[in-house]
Amino acid sequence: MRLVFAGTPDAAVPTLHRLASDHDVAAVITRPDAPLGRKRVLTPSPVARAADELGIPVCKAARLDDEVTQRIAALRVELGVIVAYGGLVREPLLSTPTAGWINLHFSLLPQWRGAAPVQRALIAGDVRLGASVFQLVPELDAGDVFASRAFDLPEGATADIALRTLAEEGAALTAEVVSGIADGTVIAEPQEGEPSYAAKLTLEDGVLDWSLPVEAVFARFRGVTPEPGAHTTVDGQRLKILEAAPALDAEPLPSGHITGTKSAVLIGTATSPLAVTRVQPAGKGAMQAADWWRGQRAAEGLRAGS
User: Fold this and answer.
1) pLDDT tens digit sequence for 87-133
2) What Rg, from alpha-carbon coordinates, does the chain have?
3) Residues 84 and 9: beta-carbon distance below 8 Å
4) β-pair partners for 234
5) Residue 222, exposed/middle/buried by CB under 10 A (0-12, 13-18, 19+)?
6) What is the Cα–Cα distance from 295 to 267, expressed in whole angstroms?
7) 3-state SS of 213-271?
8) pLDDT value at residue 305
9) What is the pTM of this model?
10) Sequence-distant (≥ 6) Cβ neighbours of residue 29 within 8 angstroms
């Protein structure tokens, strides 16, 4: 098929590569260059870089407005494919491709419609994550589904690892759907069940609540790692937690109580402690949690969340 592709982050790149190998991708739409790093250097999106490598024309747009619609209309594409572009497709662009637009969404719809499906699913403790390819409609992530598939993730996978897995598997799923649309063998079915919603994460979503059971604390850690980042306060200073796992065999500690071992720091929850192995104190670089603990003067009197 002759396609237009819209996407921005790393998670969209596998789908672009897969489609470009089998179809005619006439253009790629992505968000404008963004300032990154301490020097705030304007940097093309991962999708923009991938499109340049593939020799595909790139349209950088903060909004899918009339100008973008006119450019896509001139290309006479049959189908639009969108993966994490970061903006809404509205009419008349929604109807500009002959077969409309399809969207790869990283959830088992209608679960976790919205901006942060993988992160919210992990925070909620979902044991099954997946990807869905659906027909784009004006209502948020509500279109009929062409294909949906659950995937196994590595045990304890954080959001970045889960998203990489789903991006690769979702690319194959999207390619199957596009081929099915091309030869008329795939049919979209209405979504079934009560929808849930995945709001964009804020910095506050990264706060760990030590009064909860360790499974809930670890679930939030997984969902907010690496962004916006899991963190707590110790002696009034924010401490970012980079690597952690439940210490199910350790003796229980009072909620928020901190103690150290040779290789980790244990922080008490409502059940078993959380073993923290890598941290980043405010204003400093990442370090081993045991090294951070040895540098604390009032060690045994410190509590997380205080």
Assistant:
1) 999 999 999 999 999 999 999 999 999 999 999 999 999 988 999 99
2) 22
3) yes
4) 237, 304
5) buried
6) 17
7) CHHHHHHHHHHHCCCCCEEEEECCEEEEEEEEEECCCCCCCCCCEEEECCCCEEECCCC
8) 84
9) 0.94
10) 4, 5, 6, 7, 58, 59, 60, 61, 64, 68, 72, 85
Q: Report the Cα 172 to chain-centroid distance in Å.
A: 18
Dist CA 196 CA 132 (whole Å): 15
Residue that has been written with the tokens 């979902």 in this structure: 126
Residue with tokens 């690496």: 226
Residue owning tokens 């098929």:
1
Distances (CA, A) of 243 to 171, 228, 251, 279, 285: 29, 14, 20, 7, 14
Peptide bond into 9 cis (omega under 30): no
Domains parsed from the chain with CATH numbers: 2-197 (3.40.50.170), 203-301 (3.10.25.10)
What does the alpha-carbon distance between residue 270 and residue 36 come to, in Å, rounded to a whole number? 39
- Per-residue pLDDT of 164-223, as tens digits, reads 999 999 999 999 999 999 999 999 999 999 999 999 999 999 999 999 999 999 999 999
Dihedrals phi, psi of 301, to nearest 5 degrees: -95, 0
Per residue in 133-154, pLDDT (tens digit) is: 999 999 999 999 999 999 888 8
